[in-house]
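User: I'm putting together notes for a lab meeting next week and I want to include a structural view of one of the chains we've been expressing. I don't have a solved structure, so I'd like a prediction I can at least talk through. The sequence is below, exactly as it appears in our construct file.
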Amino acid sequence: MTVTPAQLRDLARRAQDLAAEVRSLCDTEPAGSPEGDQLRAARHAADWLDRGGEDLQRAAGDLARLRAQREQVCGMPWGVCPEHGNTLSYRANITECRVCHRTWPQDRAGRPCAELVRWKVTDQAGTVTRMCDGHVLGARAVLRGATFTRLDAEGAQA
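Assistant: Thanks for the context. Below is the predicted structure for the 158-residue chain, given as structure tokens.
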């Protein structure tokens, strides 16, 4: 099961509604009643429900931001030079582009790509893949009949 921000927001709303209901019930009891200690504990529990609701709201926002950020990252299973594509070599814990000689201090090609998505690539079968500039260079060379749409041109879809 995948947890969604909407589910967390719904739980937050329910926790806050429950807290309000507890307070409403407690407020119907006259002041100085023999149940005062128990009702004080119930009001305290309502405070905890409110705090839990606030925490759930924050978690929903954090999850939404994380997912939006993850959707903006290329995520192809290997890294490339952002300017030249599949031109990397790796040795002695340094990755280097064989064209521009830019270097990275790890095995960039051996890790998922973390460059920003800039393209929507639709192959002949209609499969859509979102890619960075570097990966599009390789895709253009091998995908016959595919369409390449720059996401900036579609209006902030990247």
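A couple of points you could mention at the meeting. The chain has a mean pLDDT of 89. The two ends are 27 Å apart (CA to CA).

User: Perfect, that's what I needed.
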